[in-house]
Design brief:
Blueprint (H helix, E strand, L loop, with lengths): L1 E6 L5 E5 L4 H7 L9 E7 L3 H13 L2 E4 L9 E6 L7 E2 L1 H4 L9 H8 L1 E5 L12 H9 L3 E5 L2 E5 L9 E3 L5 H11 L5 E5 L5 H12 L3 E3 L5 E5 L7 E4 L4 H14 L2 E5 L7 H9 L3 E5 L2 E5 L8 E3 L11 H8 L6 E4 L9 H7 L4 E4 L2 E4 L9 E3 L3 H13 L3 E5 L2 H4 L5 H6 L4 E6 L2
Parallel strand pairs: 2-15, 3-14, 6-7, 10-11, 18-19, 22-23
Antiparallel strand pairs: 1-23, 1-24, 3-5, 4-5, 7-9, 8-9, 11-13, 12-13, 15-17, 16-17, 19-21, 20-21
Helix pairs in contact: 1-7, 4-6, 5-6, 6-7, 8-10, 8-12, 10-12
The chain binds ligand EPZ.
C-alpha cells in the first residue's frame, strides 16, 4: 500500500503533459469485442483501470499487445483482437474491482448475442444503479434476466433488432452501452436525451471509423443504423479533460502557472469558464493552454451538470482550490448523492466547509496545514493532493491506489513543475 508525501507551499510553474482520457479509454477498449479485426488504440493512459479492463477483456478471449514505451514518454499503444469470443461472462471478482466493467455488456451482446456481467456494487460516491443500461438494451430488443448477482442479456434471434429509447436521466455509461449495442443491430436505433460528454463523441468517432453509421454525434439525439459487421482500425484516445482541469486547479491553489500540454480547450469550456471566474488567467497555446493564478482567487457559485455543464468529476478539485479563495463559495453536486467524502479530510487540513445535503458552502481564506489524510475515491484523492500542495508543512495521502486509477504518474508530473512530492511504499 503506497502513500504520497507532499511538502506544500511552492508556486508550481512549468509544463505538464496531459495523458489520454481514462473515461474515454474505458469505453473504447470494449469496442474490440465488436469486430474480428485488430483494434489499435493509441494515447492510452497508463492507469490501473486500463490494465484491469484489458485483463477483463483477456478473460473474454480478447488478445491484447502493448507496444513498448520509451522512458519519459506518456501513453501507450495497445492492439486488441477478438477473433474468437472465449467467454461471454464478466465475473464478479473483476467487476467488483472496476464498475466500468459493465461496459462490456452492450458490445458483447451485440457481437455474441448474449452477455452475462456481474452486477457492479455501489461505490463511495453513490449507489450507481445500472437500470438505464438494462432499459436501453431492452429497447434495442434484448431480453434481460437478473439472477445470483449477475445480469444476463440475450438477443432472442441472436441479433438485436434496434429500437428507440429516451433516457429519463442523462447517463454516460448507459449511452455508451446503448451505442455499442446498436451499431450491430439489424435496424435503426434512436437515443434521446443521450449523454453528450466528449468521451461519448470519442466513442462515436471510433465506431464510425470501424464502419458504424451514427448521426447526431455530439448532440443528445443519436441515430444509429445497424451494420452487418465492423472492421478493426487505429485510433488515438482523446486527451483527458478532467486530468487537465485537475492540474489547472494545482496552478490555482498554489498561485502558479502551468501549461497543460495536449489539453483540448474545446472539451473544457465549463471548466475554463469557472477557472476564469475564479480569477485565473487562461491562455490558449498551440499545444493546449496555460493557466496562471497571479492574484488571489475569487469565490464561485457552481452546480455540477451533465455536459456541457460543469463536470461532477471536477467538483472535489474546485472545492479544494476554493477553500483558499477570498470569500465564500457555494457548490452544488447534482449528479451523485454522496460525492462529498473529501470534505472531512479537507477540514482536517484547515478548510472551512459546511455541507447541507447536496450543497456545500466553502468559507474560503483557509490557511491550510499539512496532515495525514485518507483518500476515499478517485477525485476526492486529487482534492487532498491539491490541498497538500498549498498546505504549510507535510501532507501524507494514504490509499493512493484511488489516485492510480485516474492519474498517470501524478508525482512525476507534479515534480516536473516544482512540487515537493514523492511516493512512499508502505509495503
Ligand atoms: C461516468 O460514470 C464516469 N465514469 C464518471 O467518472 C462520471 O462522474 C459520470 O460518468 C458522470 O459524468 C466513466 O466514464 C468510467 P452516469 P457513469 O451513468 O457512467 C444515475 C471519475 O471520477 N444512473 O452518467 O457511471 C447515476 O446514479 C468517474 O472518473 C442511474 O440512475 O455515470 C448518476 O446519478 C466517477 N441509472 C447519474 O445517473 C443508471 O443506469 C449519472 O451517472 C446509470 C446512471
Amino acid at each position: 500500500m503506497d502513500s504520497i508525501r507532499i511538502t506544500g507551499g511552492k508556486r508550481l510553474e512549468g509544463k505538464i503533459p496531459i495523458s489520454g482520457a481514462k473515461n474515454s479509454a474505458l469505453t473504447l477498449l470494449p469496442c474490440a469485442l465488436l469486430t474480428e479485426g485488430k483494434l489499435t488504440l493509441g494515447n492510452l493512459p497508463r492507469l490501473a483501470d486500463v490494465d484491469n479492463f484489458s485483463h477483463l477483456l483477456n478473460g473474454l478471449g480478447v488478445s491484447t499487445k502493448v507496444a513498448g514505451v520509451k522512458k519519459g514518454e506518456f501513453g501507450r499503444k495497445m492492439t486488441l483482437s477478438a477473433r474468437e469470443i472465449a467467454s461471454t461472462v464478466a465475473p464478479y471478482d473483476m467487476v467488483r474491482k472496476m464498475r466500468a466493467s459493465i461496459l462490456v455488456l452492450g458490445p458483447m451482446l451485440a457481437r455474441a448475442g448474449e452477455s452475462t456481467v456481474s452486477l457492479p456494487g455501489g461505490c463511495a460516491i453513490g449507489d450507481r444503479p445500472i437500470d438505464l443500461h438494462l432499459k436501453v438494451l431492452e429497447a434495442l430488443g434484448a431480453e434481460i434476466e437478473l439472477a445470483a448477482g449477475y445480469v444476463k442479456a440475450s438477443a432472442p434471434k441472436g441479433r438485436l433488432s434496434g429500437g428507440d429509447y429516451s433516457f429519463p436521466v442523462v447517463s454516460v455509461g448507459a449511452t455508451e452501452n446503448g451505442l455499442m449495442a446498436a451499431v450491430l443491430a439489424s435496424g435503426r436505433s434512436e437515443l434521446f436525451n443521450a449523454a453528450r460528454e466528449p468521451e461519448i463523441v470519442d466513442l462515436c468517432n471510433l465506431l464510425v471509423a470501424m464502419g458504424g453509421k451514427i448521426d447526431g454525434i455530439g448532440s443528445s439525439h443519436l441515430v444509429i443504423d445497424g451494420v452487418e459487421g465492423l472492421d478493426g482500425c487505429s485510433y488515438d484516445v482523446m486527451p483527458d479533460r478532467i486530468e487537465a482541469g485537475s492540474y489547472a486547479c494545482a496552478a490555482g491553489i498554489t498561485g502558479g502557472s502551468i501549461e497543460l500540454v495536449g489539453a483540448r480547450p474545446s472539451d473544457m469550456l465549463a471548466i475554463t469558464n469557472a477557472l476564469a471566474a475564479a480569477g485565473l488567467v487562461i491562455e490558449f497555446t498551440e499545444n493546449g493552454m496555460r493557466v496562471t493564478a497571479d492574484k488571489p482567487l475569487r469565490p464561485l457559485a457552481v452546480s455540477t451538470a451533465p455536459y456541457p455543464g460543469f463536470p461532477t468529476d471536477m467538483q472535489a478539485q474546485f472545492m479544494a482550490m476554493l477553500s483558499v479563495a477570498e470569500g465564500q463559495s457555494f457548490l452544488e453536486e447534482t449528479i451523485f448523492e454522496n460525492r462529498y467524502m473529501h470534505v472531512p479530510e479537507l477540514r482536517r487540513m484547515g478548510a472551512d466547509i459546511e455541507v447541507h445535503g447536496r450543497s456545500a458552502i466553502v468559507k474560503g481564506g483557509a490557511k491550510l496545514t499539512g496532515a495525514q489524510v485518507m483518500a476515499t475515491d478517485l477525485r476526492a484523492s486529487m482534492s487532498l493532493v491539491l490541498a497538500g500542495l498549498a498546505a504549510k508543512g507535510e501532507t501524507e495521502v494514504l490509499r493512493v491506489y484511488h489516485l492510480d486509477r485516474g492519474y498517470e504518474r501524478l508525482e512525476e508530473k507534479l515534480q516536473g513543475v516544482g512540487a515537493t512530492i514523492e511516493r512512499v511504499s508502505l509495503g
